[in-house]
Write a structure and sequence with these properties.
By secondary structure, the chain is an alpha/beta fold. Helix content is 41%, strand content 14%. It folds into 3 domains: 75-109, no CATH class; 111-149 and 180-284, no CATH class; 343-556, Ribonuclease Inhibitor (Leucine-rich repeat, LRR (right-handed beta-alpha superhelix), Alpha-Beta Horseshoe). The chain is globular and about 85 Å long.
Length: 559
């Protein structure tokens, strides 16, 4: 008699129903793949133990280094899993082990985001081409920053007055050499931008795309960048090709949620956003378009175009482009509440565009009612006090403000106005001045009973960052600021050359005024403090555009 024994087998999920047949098939497929992987790992472990029967610990150790247990024998899945725990630099070093590891290095799951900071130098082009060729077609988040090579090293550009001194005959020859150098910089810049855009033109998985071109040193004396561009690209073919590629990327995108382009020479045009499909525009969450090279009254985005971006949560624009009509569009019921708004106020834009169309106080009240969590970040480049009085409406929920001056200094009245109107919101206050004045730095407390900076620290209870250069800060006022805000003031950056002492403090022979200042400010803040000795170490001073752009990015991401 034959006896058949039935051993129960694990039933795949959903197998009892007809609708679960497909899921059961997929479950069996996964079980089979797991079994295959397990068998491969068992074989690997068997080879790591060495030859059976030898019993030699030394031979077992040698087997670890043998060909059977080499790096090439590890499964690709295991290598990728190991790489996932490593930071990007360590992955690159590990990929040098063998060709098999190098093939696993650019597995798409390992590079969901790519952040690149490039010097505008010919030596960067081969490396950029290799990296973008490997990752450009699948990367989901791409952030690229360009910076001129001599700007990173602290050298002067053709627009900042550094380089040639026409007063001495021996240095006159430096001017054409400097011009040739910056022509080469712009030529390389165009090639690098083309390399990036060509590599991602067909990437439909792109979700966050951010470009920043820090060659603003060419823009400090008028529209000098266009003069150099006309020499590098006389017929405009490369610029037109770049603009077409940018529009092609927008038209091919299907998942784009974040689009940011700052200070890139003539890449974005007033018609670029029309390339976005309605479905992508309707789901866009962040939009940043900053460019000082747009001629005349042209704008990169209009109120009509903004109506398509109904899901926008953060926005960054030139202040002159942010009109009252745009504010009305953002308060419509079909738009989600805007939470972050970054505005760049530049003297070039104010000269060519009118402030008559900017939102009034009622528009700001409506925006604040629409979104109680709305916060505003303003950066002002060389703006006159009378224009700032027009811009700073009382109902703006201003959280951060950054003044950067090369020609026009900020007045004490403006600082006093900010401390009175935005005491409930203000957390960041930056005051930078690079005006060359032989009479010394301007004193904001002139003809005033109280120093405006001390009043700012007293009124703005949420103040966490205060940075000052190029304005006189009296030592006793600095001590008062530290005591008023205490440990809540996380960052207090004041350059050593901006600090001044009263005659009484200097006359006291028993106390070292500098040592006393450091001690008292440190006690007030509850942490060690020193004045900034080297102004070149402050990126907010040496690279204001880059600082604003990075702060804007983090400001918008912090929702």
């Amino acid at each position: 008699m034959l006896l058949f024994l039935s051993v129960p087998q694990p039933r795949p999920p959903g197998a009892r129903t007809r609708a679960g047949a497909a899921r059961a098939a997929r479950w069996r497929r996964r079980q089979w793949l797991r079994l295959q992987q397990l068998q491969r790992l068992r074989g690997l472990l068997r080879s790591l133990r060495g030859r059976p029967g030898t019993g030699s610990h030394r031979r077992g150790r040698m087997a670890l280094c043998g060909q059977a247990a080499g790096a090439a024998s590890l499964p690709s899945e295991l290598i990728v899993h190991i790489f996932s725990f490593l930071p990007a630099p360590d992955r690159l070093r590990a990929s040098a082990s063998c060709s098999h590891w190098r093939e696993c290095l650019f597995y798409p799951a390992l590079w969901p985001q790519l952040r690149i900071c490039l010097r505008v130098s010919p030596t960067e082009q081969p490396r950029l081409e290799f990296l973008m060729r490997k990752c450009g077609w699948f990367v989901r988040e791409l952030r690229v920053e360009f910076a001129a090579e001599n700007y990173l090293s602290g050298g002067g550009g053709p627009g900042d007055g550094g380089g040639a001194d026409t007063g001495t005959g021996g240095e006159e020859v430096e001017a054409p050499q400097l011009s040739n150098r910056w022509l080469e910089v712009l030529r390389t810049y165009l090639e690098l931008v083309l390399c990036v855009l060509v590599s991602i033109r067909n990437n439909r998985n792109l979700q966050k795309f951010s470009l920043f071109g820090d060659i603003s040193v060419l823009q400090q004396q008028g529209n000098l960048s266009n003069t150099y561009l006309s020499k590098v690209d006389p017929d405009g073919k490369k610029i037109k090709q770049i603009q077409q590629l940018f529009e092609e990327i927008l038209s091919n995108s299907r998942q784009l949620k974040w689009l940011s382009c700052g200070f890139m020479l003539e890449i974005v045009t007033p018609t670029s956003l029309s390339s976005l499909s309605n479905s992508v525009a309707n789901t866009m969450e962040h939009l940043s378009l900053l460019d000082n090279n747009i001629p005349g009254n042209s704008t990169l985005i209009t109120a009509v175009e903004l109506e398509r971006f109904v899901n926008l949560r953060s926005l960054a624009l030139d202040f002159c482009d942010f009109t009252a009509e745009m504010a009305r569009v953002l308060t419509d019921s079909n738009h989600v509440p805007l939470q972050r708004l970054s505005l760049l106020v530049h003297n070039v834009s104010v000269m060519h565009k009118s402030l008559d169309n900017m939102p009034n106080d009622e528009h700001w009240k409506a925006l604040s009612r629409k979104s109680t969590s709305l916060r505003v970040y303003i950066m002002a480049f060389d703006i006159k006090s009378e224009d700032m009085f027009k811009i700073l409406k009382p109902s703006i929920p201003l959280e951060r403000i950054h003044f950067d001056s090369y020609i026009t200094c900020v007045s004490g009245a403006i600082v006093d106005l900010i401390s009175r109107q935005y005491d409930k919101f203000l957390t960041h206050f930056i005051l930078m001045n690079d005006v060359i004045d032989t009479s010394g730095f301007p004193d904001l407390s002139d003809n005033r009973n109280e120093d405006p900076l001390v009043l700012l620290a007293w009124r703005c209870t949420k103040l966490s960052l205060l940075a000052i250069h190029g304005y006189t800060v009296w030592a006793h006022n600095l001590i008062a600021i530290a005591r008023l805000r205490g440990s809540d003031l996380k960052v207090l950056e004041v350059t050593e050359e901006s600090i001044d002492f009263d005659q009484g403090e200097l006359a006291d022979q028993d106390v070292d005024p500098v040592h006393n200042l450091i001690e008292q400010v440190s006690l007030g803040l509850g942490q060690p403090w020193h004045a900034v000795m080297d102004i070149e170490s402050l990126s907010v001073f040496t690279e204001p555009n880059r600082h604003f752009y990075r702060e804007m990015q983090s400001f918008s991401e912090d929702i």
